[in-house]
Amino acid sequence: MGFTALGIASAEEPKSVKLNTTADHTKFKELQREFASGPEVTKACLSCHTEAAGQIHRTKHWKWEYKNPDTDQLLGKKNVVNNFCISIASNEAACNSCHVGYGWKDASFDFTSEENVDCVVCHDTTGNYKKPSGLAGNVVTKDMEFPPGSGKILKAIDLSKIAQKVGKSSRDTCGGCHFNGGGGDGVKHGDMDSSLAAPEKELDVHMDASGLDFTCGTCHKTSSHDVAGSRYTPTAKDAEGAHLRGATDNGNPATCISCHGNVPHKQEARLNQHATKLACQTCHIPEFARGGIATKMNWDWSTAGQRDANGQQITRKDAKGHINYESRKGDFILAENVKPTYVWFNGQVNYTLKTDKLDVNADVTHINTLGGSPTDGKSMIWPIKRFGGKQPYDTVNLTLLTPHTAGNDDTGYWKNLEWDKALQAGVKVSGVPYSGKFGFVKTQMDWPITHMVAPKDKALGCVECHAKDGRLAGLDGIYMPGSGANPLLDKLGWGLALLTLLAVLGHGAMRIVLRRKA
To answer: What pTM was estimated for this model as a whole?
Structure first.
């Protein structure tokens, strides 16, 4: 601080500082050392962030388990079955590379350990942090051959340099797992893939890297490390309205309404009437998988197991270069720029669990069922990705089966292509009774679409729905002018038109007659 001639203190130019963080982690002595494992880094983090691990322990990201209070179903990745990679049971070492922890390879994992929490997986800013599949969420700190005997070397990462560069979560850190769900980029969700890492406005108006540049956390706001939004109990109809910053409410901050309100259209007020029945996503996400990355639409496990003339596993690709067959996985159907399926949805999701009996005479087994109807007062019309599959089930017990697929052991299907071995090993871990007899059942799973929001000038136009065979054709409980014929309404309409014509002709005739009399 200096003084002027009058003796008044004057402020000096402030020193140069980082404006996007309150801490420079390169200056922390706790991080200026070599780390031999991920838990060692976490221990250093917790020396300052004392409550962080305990907060993580309370979240779905840690537990991979959630009990739905409405259906009483015990859900979460630890319990549900899907028609992609089917189940994590017996496949933990591979699947759990996307767990926010270290070392979950089997049921012995200690969920109470604070040092098992992985801080860096969400807070890395370098792009160099890797958790290879097969290592149960652990990181590589010394070069190693993996799988053993493969000749493939996994390079070590420098945990000290990475830990000194931690920062806020980003699309890259969230996307490291969520973009790659189901075994590959864009496979599962359809509206989330690596094209959202740095998208243009045309792909997502909110995440536009040169515009609003939203991160995942902008919408999925966290409280004590608990991330808003849920695939198990989503908010289908938000009646809370726009959220006021700082106000306490029970609303979901991840909905469109939480920012845009319940009357979002300022100039086209007529559209606000549509918004009472149509989810925002229905009009504003015209297609998914729009970023140049195909999404899987069907996965048939029943065709897996083929080998070439030399007994080796094979891979085939379609005309666009997408893998559409693998010996270890079966046949796939992939697509880009997909028009969604539309359903009434009220936020309730019921799952077919491992112990539920299947109706094998049904056309399809629903892995999940989205609740909703046009008359319950809670439903909106939502866009979804409808994913088809064919997967193993017990033909005697009539239950879904959980194969051991990943792994370098003799029972892993991806290695030996032997279903019976894989199923025996899988159910031993999942606890599902197995008769020893299996077949394949056709399945279906629905995924609400909520990312890849297009600019408003690319939203659906009226004729997309108000036309014969429009997008909502066949959806129960609606009648839209121009979309189709209703015999009763047609008769009433033509009747009114005829009466109007007769009235006009009668009125004209009377005027002519009266004029002549005059």
So the answer is: 0.89
